[in-house]
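Let us begin with a simple case.
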Amino acid sequence: MDWLGHLRLTVVYDGASHKQENPLGNELILGNMNTTLAISKPEYNVMLKNIQDRMPAVTRDTSNFHKSHSQFMSVTLDVTAITPIRSIKHTLAEIDRTKSALQEAYIGLRKKQVELKKKERELESCTDPLDRELLEIEILEVNSHLEGTQNHVNGALRKMNFMVNQHKQLLEKAGKNEITEEDYEKEESKYHIMTCMKQALNAARSRNGMIDEGNLIYLFDLGINAAQAQAEVFAYLNMENQLISNGTAPTHEMTMRWLEACADKWANDPATFAGRRGFSVFDESSLTNRLGYAPAEE
């Protein structure tokens, strides 16, 4: 069984069994606080009682979170790649980061569960009242850590499941069953031209139509004449202004089609510029998992 299978058993079964069998749950922290702390004013007992009464609802609603970002934010602000295969690459990177975090959490969870079992065993054989009390406090501490870790594990599992589903949808959108390294390399020209022009257009909106220096350098490095790019930006902004003057609202889809047209227009320029400097932007012999590729027999 792989680590994900062990994690499922750990979170669903081991976590549940400890909650059922261990009477020293985290609820005792709030329940016994009024007898443990030296509270000088009686209204604090009322506050503690109110907190304890409301805590089940708070815990229930808090379980909706315990993850870094919402689903909406993940696909709009986290994965911002403008082309399909780059979107898949960034989605896979999110999955990989979440998987690594889950693996670390799993190891930490298992260690704490073993620590808890050892302390419970010590408690069974302990006869000194103060040592027993100290062990009970330590068990509370471990349980608190386990609960917090499990909450974050649950959030990470939801995020990972969401991103895995996004990967499937992106493959369907691209009309592919798998992505090869060759697919990735061949889309790079389109990705960088569209990204550069997206940034250039957005910069120009706040600069009286002028592309900023950073994206002019980006255009040069892609082998695209900056005067041509500036003319395209002027023409597009002028078209938008005419639509607005006529009472029609420009759309985001129009911008995407313009970006795709720019990418098609200058598709070969990066390779031409790289060739002028002695480079090749694509080398089949240095790729792996190409579709239809059969390794040479030894």
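The second case is a distinct protein. As before, the sequence precedes its structure tokens.
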Amino acid sequence: MIGHSPAQTSSTSERIRRTVALLSRRGFALGPERVGILCMGGAVSESDVRWAVAASPELALANDLVLQRSDAGRAGAIRSRAADHATDAPPYLAMTLRFVRTLVAFAPFIRSVSIAGSLASGGFRASDDVDLNLIVDDGHRHLAYVAVNVFGLLHALRHRAKPVDDLTRRPIAPRLMTANLILERSQCHPLVRQDEDMAFELLMSQPVFGLDVFEEAVDANPALLDHFPQLAYGSSARIVVAASRVPVWLFPRALDGAARRLGNAAWRYMQWTRRNKSDALARVAYVRATMRPYTLFDEPDAS
């Protein structure tokens, strides 16, 4: 039921278990202190997390990460990503801020940009792409998708030497900037999705442009705070200021249809280039599943 979460009444141990399970679904894990800070239903102490791990047959502590026991074999790989993040993330964060400054200057219908994915969660590796969550003017979702990809390609041409994997390898230049989630402003008031996964997506996002628009979206969906009250604490992320923006009237809503066709063609082409990479296709399918009903190109005529 919207507006109610079992996290309000469940025990601390159960909240910790569900938090670890949520992290596992997203492919990463955190140490006891960080799990406590991000605990579903509100922050708990590190000692409570360690007690819950010791008392639960479903949880384990491996490489100083709190995991589901079934994920214990992945602890080394996850810890390796966290170590890489410390060295790989800073230059990519600076690069991303420069990209966002250019993007919002030439795409004034984009009202908020947040860093998401591994760069926000603490598991970024140089071979990853940078995930961005956007809030845009109504009727401009596909224009925003095309803008991110066009400017992303131009940006990536300057970084052809970037390490790649099956998800970020592209024929012309590496995949560097990705539109992870694009929401129209009206879709945020309120969100159809009020579940713990959507709440966690916003919690882990790092707004870097349009902080007021991002906070409006959080304020318009108080049920999300039932899952993660931490959302109300605000963000300490760096904020990009666009010195100037082109006039928004240059991008009427009528252009979104053409952008949809262009974006769909590009999407289908990218999926075709991954046709022999089952792991990459599975990862893309999973990410899109977690974003529904807000994914682009899910319509019957764009399948």
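The chain has a mean pLDDT of 90. Residues 85-302 form one domain.
Keep these points in mind for the review questions at the end of the chapter.
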